[in-house]
Amino acid sequence: MNNIFGALKQAQELKSRISNLKDSLEKTQFNSKDSSGKVEVIISGKGELLNIFISEEFNENNLSLKEKIMEAYKNAKFLADDFSQSEIKKATGGLPLPFDLKSFL
C-alpha cells in the first residue's frame, strides 16, 4: 500500500513541476538574428512569434526579407526547443515517459 501512496505522491509532484514548467515556458522569451544581423525575432518558450525587428540598413540585394525572417525565427525556435527539453528533463528528474510531455505544455 505504501508503494501506491508513494507513486501517487510522485505523480502529484510531477504534475506540479509540469505546471511550473508550463508557466516558465510561457514567460520565457528567446531572441535571435539572421546571419547578417539585420533581422531579429523574439519568440516565447512555446515557439510563438512575439515580435520582429528589421534593421533600417536592410539590403534587399542579399536575401529576401522573408528568408531572413525565417532564418531568425528558426534560430530562436531552436533555442526555445532546447530550453524546453532541458526543463522537461529537470521536471521529470530524467525519467523516461511513455508519452511526449511537450504536447501537454
Describe the structure.
By secondary structure, the protein is an alpha+beta fold. It has a single domain (2-95), classed as Ybab, Chain: A (2-Layer Sandwich). The protein has two helices and three strands, in the order αβββα. It has helices at residues 2-27, 65-92, and strands at residues 29-33, 39-44, 49-54. The longest helix is centred in the C-terminal third of the chain and has 28 residues, at 65-92.
Please state how the strands of the largest beta sheet are arranged side by side: 1-2-3
Q: What value does the average pLDDT take?
A: 80
From the helix content, strand content and strand pairing, which structural class follows? alpha+beta
Number of helices: 2
The largest sheet is: 3 strands, antiparallel
> What's the CATH H-level homologous superfamily?
Nucleoid-associated protein YbaB-like domain
- Outline: rod-shaped
Secondary structure: number of strands: 3
CATH architecture assignment: 2-Layer Sandwich
Into which percent range does the helicity of residues fall?
Answer: 40-55%
Uncertain regions spanning at least 5 consecutive residues: none
**What are the secondary-structure elements, in order, as H or E?**
HEEEH
CATH fold type: Ybab, Chain: A
In percent terms, what proportion of residues is strand?
15-25%
Distance between the termini: 32 Å
Radius of gyration over all CA atoms, rounded: 19 Å
CATH class: Alpha Beta
Number of spatially distinct domains: 1
